[in-house]
Structure formats: C-alpha cells, structure tokens
Amino acid sequence: MSSVEKITSYFKKNKAISWVLAFQLFRFILLPFMGLMPQDAYYHLYGQNLSLSYFDHPGMIGYILRIFTDTFGQTVFVVKFADFVITSATILSFYKLASYFLSKTKQQKALLLFASTIFVSILSFNSTPDVPLLLFWTLSLVCLYKAIFEEKKWYWVLGGVAMGLAFNSKYTAILLQFGLLAFLIFSNKYRKLLLSPWVWISIIISAAVTFPVWYWNYQNEFASFAFQSSARTSSISKFEISPKNFFGAIGHQLFLLLPILFLVIITFTYKYIKRALLKFKIPQAKTLFLLAFFVPTFVGFFALTPIYWVKLNWMMPSYITGIIIAGMFINKKLLKLQLIFSIVFHVLFSLQILFYLVPIKSDDTWVGWKELAIETEDLQEKYPNTFVFSDDNYKTAACLNFFMDDKVYAQNIIGLPALHFDYLGDDLYTLKGKNALFIDSDKRFKNKNKLGEINPLLTKYFKNVTELEPIIIKVNGKEQRKFWIFYCTDYQPKK
Length: 495
Fold this sequence. Notes:
Blueprint: H1 3-13, H2 15-30, H3 38-48, H4 60-72, H5 76-99, H6 104-115, H7 118-125, H8 130-149, H9 154-167, H10 174-186, H11 197-209, H12 211-219, H13 223-238, H14 243-257, H15 259-278, H16 285-292, H17 295-304, H18 316-329, H19 332-355, H20 369-382, E1 386-390, H21 395-403, E2 408-409, E3 435-442, H22 456-461, E4 462-475, E5 478-491
Parallel strand pairs: 1-2, 1-3
Antiparallel strand pairs: 3-5, 4-5
C-alpha cells in the first residue's frame, strides 16, 4: 500500500479527524481576508512595549504576538496566524486530554464537538488573553492527570509551570488551583494526596511562575488587580437583578457552543448537581476530575449572570473538560445536527468576512482601520507637526498605532484614564505647545454631518479647537464608517 493510500485509508477510518482538519483549513483560508481587530492591535501594543505585566491583563498574548511579528513581520496576517497556531495547539492538547477519559470513538466525537464550535473560530482569528489561556489550561490538565492518575511525580512540576503560565495569560486561571484542591478534597481515593509534598510543590511552582505579574502590580500599586476586581465587586454587591444580563449570557453561550452542545452541557450539569445535592453521590474519580475544572467556571459565572454582565469569553476555560463530558453523552444523531449548525454558522461567518453584508455599528470591527490610518496621515501632511490622539479606551489609538509610523495617543492626553496607555512611560509634557488631531468614532453613522459640538475637555487642554470635515470610510464601495476630526492647537498638559 502506497503512502497516499495509507493516508486515505486513515482518514476514511477517522472521519472526525478529517472534519477537524477541514475546519482548520477553512479557518486558515479565511485568515488573509480578516482585517485588524482592535484587540489584535491593543495586544500587539503590549508586545511592542515589553513589560513584566500590563494594566488590563498579564502579558502572554503580547509576548506571543511579539515573537511572531519579530519572526515573520508586522502584518495583520501574522497577528492572525499567531492566534491560529496557538489555537491549533490547543486543539491537539484537547485531543490528548480527551484520550485519558474517553474511548477512541467518543474521543473523536469530543474532538469534533470542540473543533467545530464558534469559540474556536473566534480564538483562531482574534487576539485575546484567552488564546494562550486555553492552551496552558489544557496543558495544565494533561500534566495534572498524569501526576494524579499515573503517579508520575515530575508532572507535578510541569503542571505547576503550566498553571503559572495560564495565570500569566489571564487571571481567571487561578481557578486551576481551586479545581485541583476541590478535586482532592471531594475524592475519597485521592484525598490523601493533600498530604503529599508534590501537590504543594506544584502550587508553589505555579505561584513562582506568576511572580512577574505580582511584581509588576507591586511596582504599580496593584493597579491591575484593582482594575479587575474593584468595579466588578462593587457592581455585584449592589445585587440588582437583570433578566437582560441572564438571557444575554445564554445567547452568548448558544452562539459560542452552538445550540446542541450547549443543551447537552446544560443537561449533564443539571444531572450531576442534582445527584450531588439530593442524593449526595460523588462521581467516580475521573469524572470528578473533569467536573472540578468545569463547575467552578461554568456554573460559577452563570450564577452571576442575573446580577452582573458576564462577558462571553469568561466561561471558555470550562469548555475544555465540559466538552469531554459532553462526548460521553452525545449520540451520533445529535452530533450530526451540531455539525449542520456549525457548517451553516461558519458559512454565514465567512460571507460576513468576505463581503461585510451586515454593517457592524461598533468599533469592534475588522474593517476601516487601515483606511483611517491612510486618511489620518494625509491630514497630518495638511496640518504638519501634529500628534494624533483619540478617546475610546484603546480601540482607535491601538489600531492607528499598528498602521502608522508616528506614535498615536489615547485619552490620557485630556486627563482621562487610558488603560495601559497610562503605563507606556510617555512624558506628555514633551507635547506641550504642540497641535493635535483628535479622532472620535461615530459608531452609529447615520449621516455625513459634522458633530457640531466640542468636547469640553478638549477646550480645557487646548487653546483652540476646530472641527474638520469627518473622515468617511467606504467598504466594498459603500460608506460604512465615520470618524469626527478636530484640529486642536497649543496643547497644555495639566500637572
């Protein structure tokens, strides 16, 4: 039998793997057509300004983007390619993890469930801290499984490193240590490991790996920890019931997982919780291990949805073990239906990327940023010796920084908090007396008129402010995006 025949025979016997490769090929083909997302640009900014950690998140995604862009060049495709490669590694790691819990047939079902979801496509196309988080989360579970169930002690060390790297990706990775301890506490068979030094060595190593994040926070008055916790804690403590938040979270999960998988997960979650609460039944050890890294994240965040807006990506780490459990229950008929949903959604997704059929009334879009950069550089030629800044947290400033040679500033120019732009080390007093172009996005874009009013903060920091003609961006020949432009003279930073 020739090599080609062997490969053909393998894929005929392993149709699920063929489907997964097809999904990945589909995603790879779409990469060149994806424009820059604001998140791509912002975390690329992380990588271009290397630091032990950053204001909003730890820096792993920034480091990854820096490695890829230094190696392959600073292009939008390379940024997307980095996300695609890391997410592909997550898929492989998931497949390995699933093999510890499922038969070959169910393992491939779980793999297909995982790889066909919308959330994997989002991770493949969009730079966020969740991209490395899910990889290191999965690798952590692989190592912890081998340490616990195969009694390979050095995997406690590797597991500690992986858990630390997950935390250096995103703070929600602290739930890994929580899940580990929860599993050991509730497991009759493995509870004795709580007395083993290896468990605590693993946790100590994970803490040591996270040292850069803690040290950066120590140097900066724990600004990142405060940012991630204080406002949210305050909002939760108000305990205001909001059906909109609850149903919004359900809608997000239906979209990310697709309906069949979401309903399977909800069903087995109810089943296991009911058994635990009413019958006091603890699942067998391997299932308990999976639940220990699923329930705190999935159920925990879902419990907050009636009183707090839970972002669509917060539950993603729970999908790793949640989908493995789903692979135990889902039958062939439901799997086919899930696959049909996935194909339809991905076709619609590709049509939106290629033809931008539905305008997105938000700055969270991949279109128009490069064109805005070109128009802005033309304006700088008309108004020489001007610096550029914007006021929308990070989106416009980050995207323009990606495409333009000159540095672009954020709303800290006019005294507003500006996320990590406040920690780039910029001395704003070097801009004193200079003129500027202020760019403000019209997210709704109903007409081509000027805004007709001046932000009072602009007049506080500049001597004169004049509104110019707005920049209108066309996409596929249609006017789709609009930016108000203001020419500001004689900048006077405040102490």
